[in-house]
Amino acid sequence: MEPDSALYERDAEMGALTSLVTRTGSGRGGFVAVEGPAGIGKSSLLAQIRTVASSAHCVVAARGNELEHEFSFGIVRQLFEPLLTAADPDQRDQLLSGAAGQAAPVFGPVTGDSTGEHDFAVRHGLLCLTSNLCEQRPTVLIVDDLHWADVASLRFLIHLQSRIDNLSLCVVVALRPDEPIAERHLLDRIITDSACLLLRPRALSADAASTLVRAEFAEATPGAPVEDAFLAACHSATGGNPLLLKETAALLLAESVAPLAVNADQVARVGPRAVARWVSLWLHRLPAQDLALAQAVAVLGEQVPLEQAAVLADLPMDTAMRAAGNLQRIELLRASPLAHETAPVGYRHPVVQTAVYQAMAPQHLWAVHRQAADMLLQSGAEAEKVAAHLLRLPAARDPQLLAVLMRAARDAQGRGSPHAAVTYLQRALGEAPSAPQRLELLHHLGQTLQLTDTDACVRYLREALPLADSVRRRAEIANQLGNGLMLTQRIPEALEVWGEALAQLPHEEQDLTAKLHAAMLSVPLFESAAPEMRQDILREVGRQRLLGPGQTVGGRFLECVIAGHDVVVGDPRGAPRALRVVQDGELLQRAVGLTPLALAWWVLICADRPEALSSLDQAVTQAYTEGSTSSLVAALTYRALARLRRGSLTEAEADAREAIQATETAGISLHHITLGPIMADILMEQGRLDEAEDALDWTLESDDLPLTGLIYHLLLRRARLLRLQAKPGDALDAALAAGEAFVAAGGQNPAVLPWQSEAALCLHLLDRDEEARTLALEEVRLSRDWGAPLARGRALRVAGLVHDGEQGTAFLEQSVHRLRPSPARLEYAKAAADHGAALRRAGQRTQARRLLTEAFDIAQRCGAQPLLQHINTEIKASGARPRSPLAGGIEALTPSERRVADLAAAGRSNREIAQALFVTPKTVEAHLASSYRKLDITSRRQLTDRLSAPT
Predict the structure, then answer these.
(1) pLDDT band at 951 (very low <50, low <70, confident <90, very high)
(2) Where do the HTH luxR-type domain residues begin and end (predicted)?
(3) Rounded to whole angstroms, what are the CA distances from 36 to 189, 191, 237, 530?
(4) Per the domain annotation, does 341 fall within a domain?
(5) Are residues 155 and 272 in the same domain?
(6) Are the beta carbons of 453 and 447 closer than 8 angstroms?
(7) Are 122 and 627 in contact (CB under 8 A)?
(8) CA 78/CA 90 separation, integer angstroms
């Protein structure tokens, strides 16, 4: 039997694909992308691997379609809906159990008024659904024509890709490299990810091309000679593309061109556009009913039920079935049984469908799309399926179309696909003749775009503002518009918009008034402003501070902003103010992801308050289960900061990486300026300086970096990195620049930005100790006012390092005393190590070893490798043997392992633990295996005994 023509010379690709599919049986995931031009054989490779995998794997497949490009989660639904539909109730419940239930809106009707602010929860639910499926059986997900996938599905695949290692899953996708689509950046992320194996099938060699063409002519004209010059012309004209070779041969046969050398010139004429020419030839020859059905299928898209195509083509069912059979025989449509009316029909290749579609005149195409929309609407189809056709039509100011598009937007948001919602709303503007209708659309667009396209958000909200039908509505829009203007560094405009709205609000609108005040007063915390403007804002901060907290949500927002000002200047009243706002949890339900709550977390973190971490744990859980990407990124970013300050580096890094992944997937640059420096700090503590530099570079990747007033965070981390890279001069310049920017923003608190101590360390390395001591003592003074242990202890430690003799040792001793009872374990380890080193130099070796040993154990639990090396050097200098890493015991467990072990000891199953911690069951298995090894046990019963034993 001859192989599929598109599988000639594809042994290497099939070997790689088969290997990845096979290893899923051992619980190892894999992701592979097959990239190449149309006709190179991608679909044939996917079909072959589907056959190979079907015996031992659950195989689910989908195909992107240009006409359904905006249909939210269209690819995801193709993959999973058939499984969920075919499953019995118990199986369906199992697949959608736990967190997977968050994906249910994707597969069913959308109910209620959804704001669409749960896109991450839906993505995470789909990940859990995939995990549940893989637990039942190793699984292969196949997606052809990924370049036409919808944005929501692409973002799910990116979310899945970074977590695939611990799943019994192989994902195989195929895409073209040259499609001019807006989502190219998402495709590039998929194929450039380190988890992705990229295969690029090459064009066929001259020998393989000759074999293929000979076979085509031999089947049609057995025994007829096929000359080498003719074959060479076929290879040259098509570039060795299998599809073009096949269609060139078919067209030449249809035109009765003999495969002889004398006809080589005709090959050159046909080859480059063989598919389009072949389709055109057949379209002109088709009977009217066959042509009508071919065009109906081209408009309706992939795998359309024959009965729908028949209705659109205005054909009786028996006539449609005959026409479909005719189209299959000439290989326009894919060969498949036509035993019933609902049998799916589709083109055998997207290139053929595109050729038929593009051959239709625009006016005729619009008419058919409108007919398709009406047909689907009458049949009760989902609004998004109808909207897919409306997107192809010119604006008509039709109220019926407006209603469908708005319903499609609501459904898309309800499924967690804001990108699709924006597309439908933008198209709906052309159908909205009245001011109230335009107001709703413009306001909705502005809200939906505020995180991903700030310029567009501002543009739509500006247009909406004068259309507002009440003072309250105008103020709501002005609040959002001002935020957009601030993010695009148009501070005077933002303040003007907010000020005008405030001036118009009546006294009884206390909540909205407080929200507008909070927005205006937050400007100096994030953005540079003119000195006189800053002074006006700070005077208003003082006035609002005297008025006392409001009881509304807006009042709480205003309290958060005032607390933010307190922490910048080092006013200790900021911590209790922030605590009052968050302690009852109301803002967690209403404001996760919003700036005021993030400010409260920031204040509590800078104050070393444990309530920050407990609030953030709740916020992360809430974001996973019901939140948006923005709310998750905000919660993870600040939890990473809280964990970093406590010294939990492994967990801090996990949070920061998850936040970065979510930020990149959703295309949100808002958090770069905060998240990048935090990640760099984590990596520097672990000694991974090259990665830290990459993190700082990532901070500046966005072309339109928001919140540039916070640039001092980036400058200080750059200074620290340069110091660790043994470039103290450059480091000093960066530290002083950070300090200058911070002071210009009104900053004084070293708990926010310890620039004096960083500059002091740089000066000390440059032998400029008098200057170093001046700066270090200034930070000691400022940290005393704020009072938080970490800031105070760090300032004292640096003062001890830059002072000589007994004075330096005294500062270090004070640092240890301040930090010992605090949650700042890593900073305490640094202080203990430096104090121990000073005592060793002073000849107090016994006391030095005790401190150094304690510091070593803490630093090891934190995962601070450079500090461990420093401590071991000091231990060796004290005359003791260097310490070895903890090999076992409870103290050797990482924080993540301990958390998994505690849940397992409490009787939770692996699945329950995975869902509680938002990881895969395979990850739980890995943590438990490592814990068993460290604790020298083999069972959960032993785990319970071991963890409960006194230490």
Answers:
(1) low
(2) 886-951
(3) 17, 12, 18, 54
(4) no
(5) no
(6) no
(7) no
(8) 21
CA distance 303 to 289: 20
Last residue of a domain, one of 600, 627, 654: 627
**pLDDT score at 111:** 66
Same domain, 118 and 257: no
> Which residues are within 8 A (CB) of 923 and not within 5 positions of it... i.e. 6 or more apart?
166, 914
For 217-236, what is each residue's pLDDT tens digit?
A: 998 888 888 999 999 999 99
Q: In 3-state terms, what secondary structure has residue 543?
A: helix
Q: What domain range is 234 assigned to?
A: 206-279
Q: Among 648, 559, 649, 647, which Cα is nearest to 604's? A: 559
Token output for 766: 């440059």
- Token look-up 């567009």 returns 456
CA gap 218, 212 in Å, rounded: 10
Whether the CB-CB separation of 721 and 680 falls below 8 Å is answered with yes
Instruction: Concatenate the DSSP letters of all residues of 632-693 into one string.
Output: HHHHHHHHHHHHHHHT-HHHHHHHHHHHHHHHHHHT--TTHHHHHHHHHHHHHHTT-HHHHH
Residue 27 has a pLDDT of 83
Give CB contacts under 8 A, 24+ apart, made by 388-393: 388/67, 388/68, 388/70, 388/71, 388/301, 389/299, 390/427, 391/70, 391/423, 391/424, 391/427, 392/67, 392/365, 392/366, 393/366, 393/369
Residue 776 domain-assigned (yes or no): yes
Q: Measure Cα distances from 704 to 492, 566, 643 in Å.
A: 18, 29, 29
Identify the helix (H) or strand (E) that includes residue 144: strand 139-144
Which of residues 178, 199, 220 is at a domain's end?
A: 199
| CA of residue 567 relative to chain centroid, distance | 31
Tell me if 849 sits within 8 A of 857, measured CB to CB: no
- In DSSP terms, 171 is beta-bridged to 31, 141
Same domain, yes or no, for 864 and 902?
no
Does some domain include residue 534?
yes
Contact 600, 561 (CB under 8 A): no
Same domain assignment for residues 902 and 869 = no
Tens of pLDDT, residues 756-775: 999 999 999 999 999 999 99
pLDDT reading at 736 higher than 60: yes
Number of structural domains, the chain?
5
> What is the model's pTM?
0.88
Q: Which amino acid is at 290?
A: D
Q: What is the pLDDT of residues 664-706, one digit of tens each?
A: 888 787 788 899 999 999 999 999 999 999 999 999 876 554 4
CA distance 392 to 403: 16
**Do 848 and 897 lie in a common domain?**
no
CB 169 within 8 A of CB 31: no
* Pair of tokens at residue 383: 């609004």
Q: Give the Cα separation of 657 and 635 in Å (integer).
A: 13
User: Tokens 């007994």 belong to which residue?
Assistant: 806
Structure tokens at 777: 């003592």
Q: CA 863: distance to chain centroid? A: 27
Contact criterion met (CB below 8 Å) for 538 and 531: no
| Same-domain check for residues 195 and 210 | no
One domain, residues 878 and 907: no
**Residue 382's Cα: distance from chain center in Å?**
27
pLDDT of residue 706: 45
CATH label of the domain that carries residue 918? 1.10.10.10
Domain membership flag for residue 877? yes
Q: Where are the beta strands (DSSP E) in 336-380?
A: 344-345
Question: What letter represents residue 739's amino acid?
Answer: G
| Number of residues assigned to the chain | 951
Cβ neighbours for 810, distance < 8 A, ≥ 6 positions apart: 800
Least confident piece of the model among 17-21, 330-334, 578-582, 591-595: 591-595
Helix, strand, coil percent values for the chain (each to nearest 5): 70, 5, 25
